[in-house]
Amino acid sequence: MMTLEATYVAATTRLDQLSRRERKVLHLIALGQSEAAIASQLYLNRTSVEDLCARIFRKLELTPSPQLDRRVLAVLTLLQSP
Q1: Looking at residues 51-72, what average pLDDT do you find?
Q2: Which residue of 3, 7, 26, 57 sits 20 to 30 Å from the alpha carbon of 66, by its own alpha carbon?
Q3: One Pfam match, by short name (predicted)?
C-alpha cells in the first residue's frame, strides 16, 4: 500500500487529465463543499456532481481505504499542485 504522501504526490501528476469543470469541482471539494452545495453553485443536478466526483477520483486514482478518505486525498492533491 502506498503511503499518504506517495498517493497524493502521484495523483498530482494526473491533474492535467482533468477537464476545467472537473478541476473546479476538485477545488470545491478541497474547500469542503458537499456534493449538494457544489451542485447548487454550478447549477448542476446532484447526480451530475456525483458522476463528476467519481470521475475525478478515478482519473486521479484516489481510492478509498479505511485509512484514507478520498476527499482528504483530493485536498492534498490540489494543495500539492503547481
Answers
A1: 77
A2: 26
A3: GerE
